[in-house]
Amino acid sequence: MKSLRNLASAIAGWSEGADLPRRQVGVLPLRTGPDGALQIMLITSRETRRWVIPKGWPMKGLKDHEAAAREAYEEAGLIGRVSKRAEGSYFYHKRLKSRDAVLCQVQVFRLDVRRQLKDWPERAEREGHWFSVQEAADAVTEAGLAALIRAIGGRSDKDKRAKGQSGAKR
User: Where is the Nudix hydrolase domain (predicted)?
Assistant: First the structure.
C-alpha cells in the first residue's frame, strides 16, 4: 500500500497529508476537419497563456457534464453535444490569484462541436486553435491531459473507421 501511495505522490505531485485534489470539470472539444481528420480545440489560459482545454469548477444546479459544456461556451464559444459520462481525468497544479498553487483533478467530457459562435464571454481573454490529435497532445504541458487526448483521439479514429467499413459493406 505504501508503494502505491508513493507512486500516486510521484504522478500527482502531492504527498501524504496534503489536501485532497480540488475537483474541476472540462471538455475535450472535437470536430472533423476539412481533410476528414479529427481536430481538437485548445485555448490559452488567462494567466500563463499555456494551451489548455475549457474547464472550471463544478456549478451548483448543473450536472458535471452540463457545467463542462458551459465552460466550453464561456471560454471558447463552442456549442455541441457533450457526453454524460467522463472520458477520464488528469491532475494539474492551478495557480490561484494569491499565487498559491492547488492540486486539481479535472474530469474530462467529450464535446462533439457543432458550431463556434462569433462572440462569447471570454473571447477577448483567450486564444483558441484547432489542432490535430498529435499536435494537441504535444501542445499541452500536463502529461495526463496529453495521454487523454491521445486515447480519445485514437478511439475516435477507430470508431470512424468502423463506421466507414460497416457503411461500405451495405
Answer: 20-153
pLDDT, position 170 = 36
Whether 3 is in a domain gets the answer: no
What ranges make up the beta strands (E) of 46-96? 51-52, 55-56, 78-82, 88-95
Q: pTM here?
A: 0.81
Total of domains in the chain? 1
- Here the CATH number for the domain that contains residue 126 is 3.90.79.10
Is there a domain that residue 130 lies in? yes
**How far is it, in rounded angstroms, from Cα 41 to Cα 142?**
16
Q: Predicted confidence band at 159 (pLDDT cuts at 50, 70, 90)? A: low
E strands, the chain, where?
Answer: 22-32, 38-44, 51-52, 55-56, 78-82, 88-95, 101-116, 128-132
For residues 32 and 114, give the distance between their C-alpha atoms in angstroms, rounded to a whole number: 10
